[in-house]
Amino acid sequence: MKHYDPRTYTVDNSVGYLLRRCSSLLRDDLEQAFDGHGLTFVQWVTLMRLRDDPALTAGDICRDLRHDSGAFTRVLDHLEEHGLVRRERSEADRRVVLLHLTAEGRRAVQEMVPIVVGRLNDALQDLSAAEIVTFGKLLRRMIERLESAAPCAGMVRKGLKP
Amino acid sequence: MKHYDPRTYTVDNSVGYLLRRCSSLLRDDLEQAFDGHGLTFVQWVTLMRLRDDPALTAGDICRDLRHDSGAFTRVLDHLEEHGLVRRERSEADRRVVLLHLTAEGRRAVQEMVPIVVGRLNDALQDLSAAEIVTFGKLLRRMIERLESAAPCAGMVRKGLKP
DNA sequence: CGGATTAATCTGCCTAGGCAGAGATTGCCG
DNA sequence: CGGCAATCTCTGCCTAGGCAGATTAATCCG
């Protein structure tokens, strides 16, 4: 099914452009909410991931958040330094570092949840519940397609142009 | 209308997370398409904007692409250096720099259109035409909401945490 | 007209993210 | 058992993006 035609394609009518704009606006909006709470967006999502699924590894979260593994090491350094996360070598596979939320980490992440949820609800205010469900389904289907096409599900290293 | 509840909110069920993931996957996919064509994604979108609307200013494009004005100066430096774009002081308002595609710039952008459109169509393959239209409408409504809430429509400078 | 305010772009500096490669560990297979 | 490839994390280095302030130009208003 060929939806877009090269002869009529413009930036304005592109779902790609809309996706980029929407996610960027939302991120900026959320990022504002973190001002004065001592967390960045990436730090917070990392803590959320660990809250919902304890004992994940650094690699798991990296793939999940589509974050560079090198950069992520430094995110973890910062979180550990501030006592929000504990690193622990896995006994089963000593290459792996298992991550755990500390009590303080759990407190920090929970403190932000209502704020983030509030902002998200605001952003979705003009959509009905049914529309939000549809929205999620469409996103999921597009994601699934992109992931199956991607060589290695998010661990590709991107080459930058000069 | 409160869709998400702080007590049941998880990363997985969040439209925010899906948006981020989807737009990031799509961008990586497109970025790959530019390999070997001497353009980055941002450079290409800039050229597209100029193709569809000649004589825009740097500020216009910045706001439109949600790009930092400082960083954008350097993008333009690069494009001008390679002869794809021409800067021209406006006579009406000499603070303003009007941007124009050169013939070479037009060629470069047009060369990429079919490739990008192909990738985008691939990514949307599992959605029907009607669904893609719906998708676009939902995105637009969310964007509109976020823009009306934002203090200054994309020109806010974000404070970063240490 | 003149001073103050606003607007648009550009420069300097810093940080987060991205890539390559090192180091350590495991799993595979002859 | 031994070597080789694969996996996972981390370090070093570089670049794009982000912020602040400087510069130039226009506009407002007395």
How does this model look, in words?
Two copies of one chain form a homodimer. With 162 residues, chain A is mainly alpha-helical. Chain A has six helices and two strands, in the order H-H-H-H-E-E-H-H. The longest helix of chain A is centred in the last third of the chain and has 21 residues, at 103-123. In chain A, 59% of the residues lie in helices and 6% in strands. The radius of gyration of chain A is 19 Å and the shape is globular. At the A-B interface, helix 1, helix 2, helix 5 and helix 6 of A face helix 1, helix 2, helix 5 and helix 6 of B. Chain A binds a DNA duplex (30 and 30 nucleotides) through residues 40, 42, 57-59, 67-75, 93-97, 157-160, 162.
List the quaternary state of the chains. Answer: homodimer
Cα radius of gyration of chain A in angstroms: 19 Å
- The side-by-side strand order for the widest beta sheet of chain A comes to 1-2
The helicity of chain A comes to: 55-70%
Number of helices of chain A: 6
Order of helices and strands of chain A: HHHHEEHH
N/C terminus separation of chain A:
35 Å
Strand content of chain A: 5-15%
Structural class of chain A: mainly alpha
Largest sheet of chain A: 2 strands, antiparallel
What is the arithmetic mean of pLDDT of chain A?
Answer: 89
What is the total tally of β strands of chain A?
2
Which regions of chain A contain 5 or more consecutive residues with pLDDT less than 50? 152-162
